[in-house]
Amino acid sequence: MIRSTHLPLLITLATFVLAYALCASAYPAMLSLRVVANLLTDNAFLGIAAVGMTFVILSGGIDLSIGSVIAFTGVFLAVILRETSMHPLAAFALVLLLTTAFGTAMGATIHYLEMPPFIVTLAGMFLARGAAYVLSTESVPITHEFYDTLQGLYWKVDGARFRLIGGLMVLTFIVGALVAHRTRFGQNVYALGGGEQAAKLMGVPVARTTIGIYAVSGGLAGLSGIVFSLYTSAGYSLATVGVELDAIAAVVIGGTLLTGGYGFVAGTFFGILIMGLIQTYIVFDGTLSSWWTKIVIGSLLFAFILLQKGLTWAAKKRAAQARMRTATGSAALS
Amino acid sequence: MTSQTIGPRPSVMRRILPQLVILAVALALNVAVFPEFFEIDFRNGRLFGNLIDVLNRGAPVALLCIGMTLVIATKGIDLSVGAVMAIAGAVAASVVVDGHGWGTALLAALAAGGLCGLWNGLLVAVLRIQPIVATLVLMVAGRGIAQLVTEGKILTFDNPGLIHLGAGTVAGVPTPILIWLALGALVTFVVRKTALGMLIEAIGINERSSRLAGINSRVLLVCVYLVSGLCAALAGVIVAADIKGADANNAGLWLELDAILAVVIGGNSLLGGRFSIIASLIGALIIQSVNSVILLSGLPPEFNLVIKALLILGILVIQSPRIGNYIYLLKASGPQPEPDAPASRPTKEETAR
Fold it and tell me: Half-sphere exposure (CA, 13 Å, Cβ side) for A300?
C-alpha cells in the first residue's frame, strides 16, 4: 500500500527513472557503467553536503552556510598542507573538528537567541567565506603524495572507475538514512520538524537536537569540503558559490517537505542523481549551453514545490472530510 | 513582533536615531583612516569625493533595500533580487544592442523586473508558498535566464543614454544618487501619505487577522513583490550601465544578502511588521561606509565579509527576542515589581508563534 508520506519519494524515483530513460533513448551511451560511475564521482561533494541539508530541512530549518564552509575547508586544507608538514589525515580531523564546532555555534545561536535559522546561517555564510578569503584569495594547489594515493583509489568494473569519493558519498547516505530512521536523534529531528511546541511537550530535548542538527550539517559540509579538495586538488575561496542552493534543490526534488517533518534521506540521493543526470545530458548533447542546467533545475524545483503544496492540500482536505464523517457519525449515534 | 500596535507613531527622528549614530561612527572611522574623506571637489562639471562615492556606489543596495523593506515588512523575504538584477541588465543591454533607444531599454528592463516580481508575488500570495522557497526558484533559475538573454556572453554596449543612467551626472550629481533618492522619497511618500504602509504592516503582524479586518492581503502581497522586482530591475540597469555591459554571472551577485543586511541594520524586524524605508536606506549607506573604511584603510578587502558577518551577529544579538525578554525582566524588576509580567510575556509570544 502506498502511504501518502511515501508518495513524494515515489514520484522522485519515477522522475529519475523517466529522466534516465529519456536520456538513454537519446544517447544509448548514457546507459554505460562509466556514466554511472562519473555521476557518483562528480556529485560526491554535493551529495555529502545534501545529507546534512536533509537533516536541517527535516527539522524545519535551513542552512545557507554550507557552500562557504566547503570553500573554507578546501582553502584551509590547501594552506595548511602548503605551510606545515602536517599529515593530511591530521588536517582532515582538524578541519572536521572546526566545521563541526562552527555548526554547533550556529545551532546554539539559533536555539538560545531564538533567531530564524535563515539569518543566522546567512551570517555564518559570510563568516566562513570571509575566513576563506582571509586565508588566501588565490587558488592554492595541493600537492601531496597522500592525495595522489587517495585519488588513485578506485574499484574498476568494465572500464568504469568507482572512485573513493563516490563511495564515500554512498556511505554517507547509508549512515544518514540509518541515523534518520533508526536512532532517537533521527526521530527527534522528525518530531522537531513536525512542530516545535508539540516536540517539546513530547519530551524531545529541543536544545540538544537543534544544536546537533546544525553540528551534523557543519561537519558534513566539512567532509564535503575534503571530498571537494580531493576532487579538484586545490583550495579556492571563490569555489562552490551557491552550492547551498543546489543542496536545497536536491533535498526538495528528493521529496522532503520544506516545512519540515516529512522526507527521506534516500530521496535526496535520487534528487542529487536527477540533477547530475541533467548536467550529464547537457554534456552529451554538446549544443545546449550550461545555463540550461540552472533553468531546468529551477523548473524542477518549482514543479516539486507545487507537488508538495498539492499533497499538503489534499491531506488537509482528507482530514477535514474525515472529521466531518466522524461528526455526522456521532450525531447519528446520539 | 506580536505585541505591536498600529497607533500614532513616534517621530521619525527617534526611530532612525540608532542608525544615524552607527552611520556617524562608520563615517568617523572613514575620517580616521583617511582625513580628507569629507572633501568634495567640483571638476569637469561633476562632483568628486569619497562621500559622493559612498552615495554613488551604495546606489544598487539602496535601491534593492527599498523593495526589500516592504517585502520584509509583510514577513516575507525576496532572495531573487540579485538574479532579477542580472536579468534586467541583460534585457536592457540586449535591447540597446538591437539598436533601440535607451528609453525602450529601460522600459523593457523594468517590464522584465516587474514580471519577475509578479511571479514571486503570485507564488507567495496565491499559491501560498513560503517566501524563502518561492523566491529561491527564481534565484536558482534567474541567472540561467539572464544568460539565455545574453546568450552566454558579456553583452557590451555604447549607448550614451543608457550609460548616462549609471555613470553620468545631472547638474554635477551622479545619476544613480538621484535615482535612489528620488525612488526612496517616492515610495516613502506613497506608503506613508496613504494607508498603504499601515496595511502592509498589518499583513506582516498577522496576515489572517488583517484579512479578517478586510485588507485585500493577496493583492497587496503581489504588489509588494512587484515593487521589489521593479527596484531590482532599476538597480540592474544602473549596474549594467556603470560597466557598460551586462554580466549575467556576476551582476548583482550576493547583493540580495547586502539588501537584507541593510534592512536588518535599519532596525526592521525580520518577523515583519513596522518598517522604515529611511532607516533601511541609512542601513545601505552604513554598509557602503564600512566597505569604504576597509578600502581606505588599506586592509585587504578580504576582511569585508568577516566584518559584515560580525555586524550581522551583533545586530542579531540585539534584536533577539530572548535578549529582549531579559531586558524586559530587568526593567520589570526595577521600581515597581510585577511578579507575573515577565512570566506571561514569553508564553504569549510562544503561543502566537
Answer: 27
Task: Please judge whether A109 and B307 are an interchain contact, meaning their C-beta atoms are less than 8 angstroms apart.
Answer: no
Residues of chain A in contact with residue B312, where contact means CB-CB under 8 angstroms, are 119, 122-123, 126
State which amino acid sits at residue A129: R
Of A62, A127, A295, nearest to B306 by CB-CB distance is: A127
Within-domain flag for B313: no
Whether residue A56 lies within 8 A of chain B, CB to CB, comes out as no
Q: Answer yes or no: do A130 and B139 touch at CB < 8 A.
A: no
Write out the three cell numbers for B5.
500596535
Positions in chain A whose pLDDT score sits under 70: 1-5, 329-334
Residue B76 has what DSSP assignment? -
Write out pLDDT tens, residues A247-286. Answer: 988 998 898 888 888 889 999 999 999 989 888 888 888 7
Tell me which residue of B17, B85, B22 sits closest to B285, measured CA to CA: B22
Are A127 and B305 inside 8 Å of each other by CB?
yes
Instruction: Give the span between the Cα atoms of B100 and B88, in whole angstroms.
Output: 16
- Listed in sequence order, the residues at least 6 apart from A209 whose beta carbon sits closer than 8 Å to its beta carbon are A59, A185, A188, A189, A192, A199
Residues B179 and B283 in one domain: yes
Structural domain boundaries, residue B89: 12-38+49-306
Which chain B residue has its CA at the smallest distance from A123's CA? B309
| Predicted local confidence at residue B10, as pLDDT | 58
How many structural domains does chain B have?
2
Which CATH number is associated with domain A7-323? 1.10.3470
pLDDT, tens only, A312-323: 788 788 888 888
B193 shares its domain with B302? yes
Q: Are residues B173 and B245 in the same domain?
A: yes
Question: Which member of A122, A258, A297 has the closest CB to residue B130?
Answer: A258
Taking alpha carbons only, the member of A179, A182, A173 closest to residue A268 is A173
Contact A77, A252 (CB under 8 A): no
Q: Do B347 and B300 sit in the same domain of this protein? A: no
Beta carbons of A291 and B143 less than 8 Å apart: yes
Residue B208: which CATH number? 1.10.3470
Residue B137 has its nearest CB partner, among A118, A291, A301, at: A301
Q: Which residue has the cell 566584518?
A: B307
Residues of A in contact with B323 (CB under 8 A): 113
- What's the rounded mean pLDDT across residues B316-339? 69
How big is the A-B interface in CB pairs under 8 Å?
122
